Amino acid sequence: MIFSLLLIIYLFLLSVSDIRTRKLPVLMLKAGAAFVILYVAGKCLLDMPPTELIRRVMTALLGAFPGGALVLLSRHSDKIGGGDGVVLMLIGISESYTFSMLLICISCMALALFSGVVLCFRKINGRTCMPYIPFVTAAYVFLKMYEGSSMIL
């Protein structure tokens, strides 16, 4: 619970930076990576029996896969930022593959809906770059609220 709140604050700070500069500070990404790795390592060593360590490491690697794929795509395209993939990797490591995929789907749908509305009002054109991390933050908050409630889709 506390980790989720800290991650929401971290994502909010990244969102502000992404909106203002369209870039994510490398120092903040490194700090987030260190925090997530320490959290996962501490959770593995303190909460889980030693036999579960391999399963948790494999779950973390699988959760990081969608973000890693986005990082690889960013190397070959200027349409996707590399920092976006790193943030998704951090979330995937701390959560799970399913959570990570849901997060990506919801954030992409929210981005598409927002872009469509803004495009209809002619505030942007088809080539405008949009910040992605604010939508990741909103999707993360939504999923955490959904996870802690009895909502039914």
Describe how the helices and strands are arranged.
Elements: H1 2-21, H2 26-47, H3 53-76, H4 82-94, H5 97-120, H6 133-147
Helix pairs in contact: 1-6, 2-4, 3-4, 3-5, 4-5, 5-6
Summarize the structure.
The chain is an all-alpha fold.
Compute the gyration radius: what is it? 16 Å
Q: How many domains, as an integer?
A: 1
Given as residue ranges, the uncertain stretches (5+ residues, pLDDT < 50) are none
Mean pLDDT across all residues, rounded? Answer: 87
Sheet-strand content, in percent, reads under 5%
Helix/sheet category: mainly alpha
Number of strands: 0
Proportion of residues in helical segments: over 70%
Tally of separate helices: 6
Rough outline: elongated
Question: How can the largest sheet be summarized?
Answer: none
Report, as a whole number of angstroms, the end-to-end distance.
23 Å
H and E order: HHHHHH
Describe this structure in words.
The chain is mainly α and 153 residues long. It has one domain. 77% of the residues lie in helices and 0% in strands. It contains six helices and no strands. It has helices spanning 2-21, 26-47, 53-76, 82-94, 97-120, 133-147. Helix 2 runs parallel beside helix 4, helix 3 (53-76) runs parallel beside helix 5 (97-120) and helix 4 (82-94) packs antiparallel against helix 5. The longest helix has 24 residues, at 53-76. The radius of gyration is 16 Å and the shape is elongated. The chain starts with a helix and ends in a 6-residue tail after the last helix. The mean pLDDT is 87.
